[in-house]
Structure formats: C-alpha cells, structure tokens
Amino acid sequence: MGMNSRIEAAIAQAVAVGQGRGAVPQRLSSALGYATAPGGARIRPTILTSVALACGDDQPKLTDAAASALELIHCASLVHDDLPCFDDADTRRGKPSVHKAYSEPLAVLTGDSLIVLAFEILARQSGLAPDRVAQMILILSQRTGMPGGICAGQGWESEAEIDLSAYHQAKTGALFIAATQMGAVAAGQEAEPWFELGARIGEAFQVADDLRDALYDADTLGKPVGQDDLHGRPNAVTLLGVQGAISRLKDILGGAIASIPSCRGEAQLADMVRRYAERLTPVAPNVAASRSNV
Amino acid sequence: MGMNSRIEAAIAQAVAVGQGRGAVPQRLSSALGYATAPGGARIRPTILTSVALACGDDQPKLTDAAASALELIHCASLVHDDLPCFDDADTRRGKPSVHKAYSEPLAVLTGDSLIVLAFEILARQSGLAPDRVAQMILILSQRTGMPGGICAGQGWESEAEIDLSAYHQAKTGALFIAATQMGAVAAGQEAEPWFELGARIGEAFQVADDLRDALYDADTLGKPVGQDDLHGRPNAVTLLGVQGAISRLKDILGGAIASIPSCRGEAQLADMVRRYAERLTPVAPNVAASRSNV
C-alpha cells in the first residue's frame, strides 16, 4: 500500500470510530464523514508518516493513529474557522462548508467531536506502547490548544497587538511541529530533535502562502503585488518582494533539510521535503525557473 | 484541605496551564479563567473525587488531574451550549456568558481550548501510571465525543426522531459515568463495576431537573405543571406527575447506592450519594416532606 492509501485508510478507520453504529445521531455522524473526506493534500499526516518511516516505523499502528489524529485536528480547525463568526466561508474544498451543508450547531459539534476523537484514537493504541502514546497526546494537545497551539493562533487574531513570532508559530507552525515530533515518537525516537524540521516547514508554508496570495492577486486580479495585507500584518512578499520571498523560501527549506536528525531514512526524508517544496512553490513563470534549486 | 478546596485548587492549576505566561493571546487566556471560575456546584469532580477516595486515592495527583479534566469538559460544553446557534444564552451563573463578555469567536476558541486542555492535563500525569492515564483519556473521550458522549447528546437535538434512551445517556448521563469510572481508575480500580453508579446518578439528575422545571413553573409562573414540554419530549413529571417523579427519584437513588461496588470507603460513598440526593431534590413544600427518606 502506498503512503497516500495508507493515510486515507487510517483516517477513514478513525472517522468510523467516531461515527458509530446503531443508535447514533445520524446527521452529526454524517457530518464527521463530510468534514474529513475527500481531504485536501493531507500534508500533515504525510509529513508525520514520512518521519516515522525515516525512524524505522516499528509500530505502524501508532504511526497510523498519530497521522489520523493530527488530520482530525486539522479538519476540526477548518470546520470551526469556516463558521460565520470567523471566516464565514460558504465553501471548502469545492463543496459547501459544514455549517452550510448541515447547520451551524452541527458544525460546532462536528469540530468538537473531531477534536475529542483525535485523542480517543491515540488513547486506543496505548496498549502497544503507553509511553509513546502519552507523549503523542501531550504533543498534540500542546500544539492544538492554549497557550501555544492553533487555538492560540486563532486567539491572537482577537488581540489589539499581535506578537508576530508567537502568532505564526501557533497558527501555522504548530501542527507541522506536531507532525514531525509525533512521527518520531510513534517510531520510538525523541521528540526534541525534530522540532526544528517541523518549525521550518511551518515557516516555509507561511512564506509560500504569502507568495501564492501575491502571485494570484497580480496574475488574476491585477491588484498590485505587496498591497494585499488587509489586516495590517507584514508578510514575506510585502517585506521582501516576490524574488526575495522565493529566496527566503529556498533558505528555509535548505535549513529544514539540514536540520533533519541523523536517522536511517535521512536521505528519503530529505527527498520528501524537496518534493514538498515543489508543491509549496507557486507555479508562475518567474518561480518555475527557481524550482530546481530548492 | 477539604474536598471543595482540593477540587478548586486542582481546577485553578489546570486552567493556569492553559492560560500560559508571556507571549500569549491575553483575551483568550482571560476567557479560559472566566469560563471556569467561579464554578457551579462542581458536582462531577466531587463525585469523581469521592469515588477515588472510596477506592483508596493512592495517587492523589491522578485524581486531581481527572477531576479537573472532567470539569474543564463540562465548562467547555456550557460555553458552546450558550452560543447564539444553540441556546443563545446571555448569562450563565449570574454573569454574562462567554460570547457576551468576550465575543463569539473567543467563545468558540474557549470551548475548543478547554476540551484540548482536559486531555493535556491528564497526559501530563502519565509518568505516574501510564495505564491508568491512558484508560482515563479513553473514558473521557468516549463520554465527551461521538458517538456516545455529550457531543452526541447535543447532536440528537438536530435529529427528526430521537432515541430517548441514547439521548439521555449521552446528554446527561455521560459525564456522570465518566466521573465514577475515572475516579475508580485514578485509584487503580477497574472502570466497569462503576458504570451503574454513574448512570443512575445521571438518571436521577434528569428526573430532578424535570421536577425543578415543573415546580418552578407551578410556583412562579402559574403555568400548569406537566405542560411545559415545549420540545415534545416526555419528561418524568409529565409521565408520572410530581409525586410519581419524586418516587422515581428515590428509587433511582436507592438503586445508585445499592450499585456501589465493594470498596473500603463504601459507607462514606453511600453518604455522599445521599447528600447529593438532598441537593438534587427541589425545595418545595410537598418535596421537603419526602426528603428524609431519600
């Protein structure tokens, strides 16, 4: 089974646990499936699984539980972020958002249920390796909640003054740090040496996002590049320009590859980061030329 | 330290972990404190701690972590239930609800953060007894999420047809079952024998709630008793009348006491249930007369 199929199977199995059978509230049960499939790129579980494989993947069930738990948290965050009181998004991944398709109460409950399910899925594997599972639950909770997880990241958006470094690490970096650290722990390795890889992938994601926004605007809307920062927050393109941001992206990804701890699958993991870099880098004429060096 | 102070101290310590220090989003941090203190009766952690004490309470830190985790989940559920898309409640425990005091986005994030914090607080104690902690995380997740926890209980309210037994057990019973089972597991005992005590306390809570509604209406609103079921769902008073419901409450609590598994603190625990029964039973002339027999 390829990695994508493995990850999809693990997520589907996890969601089925939450959906239940028999006397269950059918609409909420259905919404759990709707919110999690078909998925996006499954980037976070892919990174997690790649790190676990690089570390030997001696307990594949732990890896699968960790990968699906992480994706459930990501999906939950999308459902809640789409709510009318946040982004008020009518669509997500080309279909109506959960609150549009099911109702706002069911969207709140879908997010809540997916968060809880993530921890259940991990706890269910405790018999295999209680210490690893406990550590993964701790990592996942700290990268999801307050004061340093994605909840904190969203929380910064309600502040008058934003600590940009704390904001970006919580909002974008947190689940990538969880990905690399949980992947290592699932395979019996220490979490700490894997922090930097996750943090740098998170940074790269942020810069790539800024680039995509800027190029998208310039190409399709005719809006001047570098003036799209409606929220008054600096981004890589406004600070560095397009070429500068592309250089920055390459530097970050170079740093990410250099940070990979010594492990048996180090070379393949570096390849994975390079492939991931290609996915991250926006397709635009002046960008395509730089790609082969990333 | 008395049990109330012990529980309050544990909850305050848990909330402080989520609030963090330094570069944290201050309003969300503040909302976590606002949503959790001052608390209500802290019934669920009191039951949990009482069961742990009856079982020997050989790892008090586990008991405290479990009690505070359970209360965090309960507080999270109140914050989300008060949201405009659910009960649209302006006040809670005599002060503005979280979305009124802070904003709707911060109320969603407060609930999410408290759910996540509950699992973090448990996972942090894993070093003391990894197996007990893993089992408590499993119990708490199953009694909180889908398909059988309080999320499912709320989810039933979006269904055209409600399975009443599944609905009541998920909506009201779930966190009482978590209370008795987590209390036992915190002290190194099996969870299963403690299911019935939690389930019966949950049932008693439901009947007491129906009674309170009915008596409150009759005394203060002049609304005929037994006609207040706006949602078309049967309740104990409409089914049995006030005296019948009081009899039913006494039967359930008698059954609860009879179900207490053999343990060193069995007698004190039975006393706790009796005291709890007095708190549950509404104060009304025709009810006060029945109290001494509960």
TrEMBL record, chains A, B:
Q: Which GO terms describe its molecular function?
A: geranylgeranyl diphosphate synthase activity; metal ion binding
EC class: transferase
Name one process (GO BP) from the record: photosynthesis
- Kindly tell me the pathway this chain contributes to: Isoprenoid biosynthesis; geranylgeranyl diphosphate biosynthesis; geranylgeranyl diphosphate from farnesyl diphosphate and isopentenyl diphosphate: step 1/1
Keyword terms, alphabetized = Carotenoid biosynthesis, Chlorophyll biosynthesis, Isoprene biosynthesis, Magnesium, Metal-binding, Photosynthesis, Transferase
Tell me the Gene3D superfamilies matching this sequence. Answer: Farnesyl Diphosphate Synthase (1.10.600.10)
Q: Which reaction does it catalyse?
A: isopentenyl diphosphate + (2E,6E)-farnesyl diphosphate = (2E,6E,10E)-geranylgeranyl diphosphate + diphosphate
Q: Which InterPro entries match?
A: Isoprenoid_synthase_dom_sf, Polyprenyl_synt, Polyprenyl_synt_CS
Reading the lineage from the top rank, the first entry is Bacteria
List residues traversing the bilayer.
none
| Cofactors named for this entry | Mg(2+)
Q: What is its EC number?
A: 2.5.1.29
Summarizing the function annotation, the protein's role is: Catalyzes the condensation of farnesyl diphosphate (FPP) and isopentenyl diphosphate (IPP) to yield geranylgeranyl diphosphate (GGPP) needed for biosynthesis of carotenoids and diterpenes.
| Family the entry assigns | Belongs to the FPP/GGPP synthase family.
Q: What is this protein called?
A: Geranylgeranyl diphosphate synthase
Per the UniProt record, the lineage of the source organism begins with: Bacteria, Pseudomonadati, Pseudomonadota, Alphaproteobacteria, Rhodobacterales
Q: Name the gene behind this protein.
A: crtE
